[in-house]
Amino acid sequence: MSVSGYIDAAFRSSYKNEVYIFMKNEYVLLDYAPGSTNDKILNGPLRIHEGFPSLIGTPFAECGIDCAFDTDDNEAFIFSTKLCALIDYAPRTKNAKILSGPKKIKHIFPFLENTVFASGIDAAFKSSFSKEAYLFKGDTYALINYDSKKLIHVQKITDGFHGLRGTVFASGIDAAFASHQRGHEAYFFKGDLYALVDFAPHTTDDFLIGGKVKLILPNWPSLRRILPR
């Protein structure tokens, strides 16, 4: 069973080694200091509406962000239950703006209608392949092209990510984001656990970097004072 009160969503900033991490209706901007335990909070924790005023009056500010992934430039898709929006998150400012939405997921990504992802998405991250992203819901994931609005495939996590077999991530992922470091690395989170994964796109050669799943605390020291919420 997943431990509540940890990380609900995350997306990588266009600033190197910076990531937005969401916890219910709050967030922090984090320098995640890859390869070390020198991570530090750059801003927050703040209520989402404090850092993203353009989201006031939307479910993203009131109920929280369930899932997110960065795309190109300063843009990201954010999700809350069945709703999705594309935002310009205007890093290091409060000038974020909604570019599209909020709309139902199936209206922004029509190819997800009649799939488990239409009712909500647990986690996502941008692939190292251009315009592609991985979406996760329960024990299932989808690989999509978010630009051409194409569904590449839907599979069980254990069929597409052999390195996750026998780990807590086989049954689902709470949040994820792609690293700024070497091209095929991503951080996965579930409850109080995380893993750094070489996701080996378009293959099943993925593996856990370091060989194991670890506790978020104490491996992310800056999060000690804010997690669990």
From TrEMBL:
Q: Where are the Hemopexin repeats?
A: 118-164, 170-223
What SUPFAM superfamilies does the annotation carry?
A: Hemopexin-like domain
**Which regions span the lipid bilayer?**
none
**Which Gene3D superfamilies did the record assign?**
Hemopexin-like domain
Kindly give the InterPro entries that the UniProt entry links to this protein. Hemopexin-like_dom_sf, Hemopexin-like_repeat
| Species | Trifolium medium
- This chain belongs to the protein called Albumin-2
